[in-house]
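seq:
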Amino acid sequence: KDIPGDYAEWIAARLLDLELCSSATEQSIDAFDAEGRKYQIKSRQVDRLNQAKILFLTDFDMAEPGHDPFDFLIGVLFSPALEVLAVVKIPVEVVRDLGRLRTSGCGWKMHWNRSVWSDPRVERIFWADDTGGRHVRLERTTRAKLDHMNTRERG
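struct:
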């Protein structure tokens, strides 16, 4: 794994009260919630949230409808300095609707673009605006958790 990926999993687990998987045996599953729902967590470093196209590659087989390997895709977008710009929660059926099968037939790809970030089925857990990192439309408890995490990590 890579540092941004591990950091994204840690952030998602803290913000959403998820239990991270202890081993890599479940390739498409990074965490579970209290109800047993499965989560895949992906991260990307971007210059800004409204960047033209950001690719979330999700390697999983969705050949059999109803046998999805996870229930939600969590996307964590970082600045080049690893500041959290956004955390989004996307149901697997939305990944199916907005993404497409890779040409190799192995896995699914979804571009983070205007059609995705403006889709009402994509839940914005955390969202910073593009004018200096102020946080907009952010639930107080989520902001407090993220502020606390950032403070602990710095000092």
